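Q: How would the structure tokens look for this protein?
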Amino acid sequence: MQVNIDFFADNGIKWKYYIVKAGDEMFAEERRGKILEILHEAQRVLVKELAEQFHVSIDSIRRDLSIMEEQGLLKKTHGGAIPVSAVRKPVVPSAVRIKDGPSHITAISKTAVSYIQEHDTIFLSGTNLHFHMIKYLPQHMPITVVTNSVKIAEQLRESENTDVYLIGGQVNKTGMISDIIANEMVKQFTIDLCFMTAGAISLQGVSTATPEEASFSRAVLEVSRRRFILASHENMEHDAFSKIGPLNSFHLLITDEGTPKELRDQIEKQGLEVTVAKGSYPVAVPDYS
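A: Here is the predicted structure in token form.
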């Protein structure tokens, strides 16, 4: 294998050296160093692409990534790897709103609402998806909404045919309530349909930003008959700080067409049904400014 190396001499002239490695592939340690460089620049690497780039087997790349993960250099994901920093990266605050409703967010929201039946008691929190969902809640039939979001409760309080129950406790700066008081209060309800969202979903499970949010989410799941998780492709193949539970804690995942089919198949093998919202190909980029 020929490797090109450029450098500049003291007189400013650019020189190029050509080094031919013994054998047909780079040494494993050198290859891992190069993988780390690529990961730093691209923020994600795929096993298949790396195998093609370095002319080695997929198993060799998988071994590289496993060793690098053990060394704390990266975090393996389905089909590749991400930087370690992405694992502890804070999830976008719930107060942040996606402007103008991207098509895939709208599609997920409408698909979720289509499962609501007359007289259902549903749970909504206060994330971007939940705010999009309330635009499409049925107005023609009576439903009950249980929420831990002051802002969601305020939006729905004058809606006809909708009874609203606000979970009590300490209100944080985003208008959400997820402390120990909220955990106890939600146990007083029976919820027909829980629409949960999360900061991250991977084959390792569903996770969110803080232990408090994770604990409250688990309390809601315990009192819910049907448990849905809503997630756009941006939240897939990541792990946030606090785990809510394994994939099979939920009955249905509603996502968009940006989530790879291979990943969807792997999720279903773990016992979680997956529905792709129609017309949800992500053509717009979220604006968090």
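Residues 1-25, 89-100, 283-289 have pLDDT under 50 and may be disordered.

The radius of gyration is 23 Å.

Upvote if useful.
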